[in-house]
Amino acid sequence: MSNAHQEAIKQFLSLMENVDEKMKVTFQNMHHGYPTETLARFLKARDWNVQKAHKMLIDCLQWRIQNEIDNILSKPIIPTDLYRAVRDSQLVGLSGYSKEGLPIIAFGVGLSTYDKASVNYYVQSHIQMNEYRDRVVLPTATEKYGWHISICLKVLDMTGLKLSALNQIKLLTTISTIDDLNYPEKTETYYIVNAPYIFSACWKAVKPLLQERTKRKIQVLQGCGRDELLKIMDYSSLPHFCRKEGSGSSRHSSNGALDNCFSLDHTFHQQLYNYIKKQATHIETGLPIKQGSVHVDFPEPDPEDTKIAKTIESEFHRLADQNGLCNSLNGLKVNGD
């Protein structure tokens, strides 16, 4: 770390000494014993501008306090059938660890439908997985591999991506904004696999809008990406949709829930769900666990994120118009044929 970066962290630490007690408590719950590394993440997200990073962190701490994020892992989505419906339509899970010990988070972007529950449940579930990652998964990996692990790898499966995904842009922008503002710099690399033409067209339009720092993190792999991913992880940690070239679906795999890290029956989701229910029991001993979603304030998206979302939207509309024209031409009969 350069002298300039060390000086920025020193200034940031000094500013944080002046926050009130509530903020100090939630900051402790956030950094898990690594305050300097946490400040460095916020500084990176604001190009090492101390004042901007300080404002970003203060806003984050206020968001955590106002929405009781410190307690969100004690608020299970119940009944279980509802949580299963969320898991079946918001495809995400932990498939394993890289050879260095980084958790591998898999996303079924193309086949996630977000249509089995209200928006609040999907946002709640996403934040709970973020918090469980930071409080349980990363500390466990740190202990197991013998070095401080605070970041993960993400593998995004584009299988099944369709023009109808346009309906999910608003929700996905909300989730992305929550991550950008409150969980910055938590991902080392994004690997895109099984990318259809529709993704390639959108990527071509969006890529110029991204910051260089973000572009460097994104790798679009050929096919299911198996060979490239096996350079950084063992076969057992490969997401199920990367295990066989042309295997297709994100939802299903040959060994069912044992392989499918999106399934509620997968070990990761069983551990996560049981952890949340156990925390709820500790807090409300003798009382029935409350039903209903957690309502979290949705932050205003960054203007750059809004621009990217609008670019994707317009590209989808262009492709839809193009597709409609092709369908019309295909339906024409020439000379009575």
Explain how this protein is built:
This protein is of the alpha/beta class and 337 residues long. Helices cover 50% and strands 8% of the residues. The protein has helices spanning 3-16, 21-31, 35-45, 50-66, 80-89, 119-145, 169-182, 197-206, 212-215, 226-229, 267-283, 303-331; strands at 92-97, 103-108, 152-157, 187-193, 218-220. A 5-stranded mixed beta sheet has the order 1-2-3-4-5. Helix 1 crosses helix 4. The chain is globular.
Q: Any key phrases for this structure?
A:
337 residues, disordered C terminus, alpha/beta
Structural class: alpha/beta
Q: Which overall shape is indicated by the principal axes computed on the Cα atoms?
A: globular
Q: Widest sheet: strand order?
A: 1-2-3-4-5
* Amino-to-carboxy terminus distance: 72 Å
Got a strand count? 5
- Report the sheet with the most strands, covering strand number, pairing sense and barrel closure: 5 strands, mixed
Mean pLDDT level: 88
Unreliable segments of 5+ consecutive residues = 325-337
- Radius of gyration, in angstroms, nearest whole number: 21 Å
Short description:
This protein is an alpha/beta fold. It has twelve helices and five strands.
Please give the structural blueprint.
Blueprint: H1 3-16, H2 21-31, H3 35-45, H4 50-66, H5 80-89, E1 92-97, E2 103-108, H6 119-145, E3 152-157, H7 169-182, E4 187-193, H8 197-206, H9 212-215, E5 218-220, H10 226-229, H11 267-283, H12 303-331
Helix pairs in contact: 1-3, 1-4, 2-3, 2-4, 3-4, 6-7, 7-12, 8-12
